[in-house]
Amino acid sequence: MPVKAVAGDTITDAFPKFAKTVELSDGVAAFNEDTVLNLGDREAHTVEIDGDLAALALSHRLEDGTLESELAVHPELRARGLGTQLLQALRNYARETGNGALQLWAHGNLAGAQQLAGGQGFANVRTLYQLEMPLTAEVAEPQLTDGERIRSFDRERDGADWIALNAQVFATHPEQGALQLADLDARIAQDWFDAEDFLILESSRGEMLGYNWLKVTPEEGEIYVIGVAEKAAGHGYGTALMLAGLQRLRERGANTVALYVDGENERAVALYRRLGFTERTVDVQYRANR
Fold it and tell me: Which domain of life does the protein's organism represent (predicted)?
């Protein structure tokens, strides 16, 4: 069963069923939202059996030449060496087309992923927590004292300013910090988007100081992405935005709220735990340089 290298847009028909099957089996999605929204920008490596996807890796090249990948094997076809075969093909591809470095996201850091990465000499270089909290208790009022206000997002007014602030807030975050207006519009086009759930914190002069973008689905509410301008840090704006977001999610009928946070962001992790969030899952990034 050879590994085939194909363009990501050639698997758009087969991908949804494959990804859903993996998610239902593992309890966690194998491919992140940016990958799902940008299949056409991904490089795919596939293993097929009888014309159906048996294993899949989706990759893209980072600015430093590193190949970043997510991979999955069909639940009914595991323990047959397909993951090892796919990973070896990725390592060869990384060496042949880039600087040889390969990064893997293991969403949920499941036992099979740990075994595969560890057996191939990959090191754990980054941890991303998914935290959760029940929305059963009353939420305190946000405290703003200098004429600031929290309002809903307006695409025409706020789009460019949000892209600039988001890039500043996530300057060291290779996925979130690289978003452009086209990426923003792709998310706005999703069924779940509601401008009333995208909260903007502005100063008395109308300057954007922070934001809390919420995502509400039938299953739960999510703090999709939250950020505060560096110059506005230390004034309690992060807490105010979190409280405003939790209030909004309760108004929308969400019973549970979830969020993702980088393990190295100790200030944010401390805030979320202080508000009552606990760990749900852990995503781990593994890396091998050659």
Answer: Bacteria
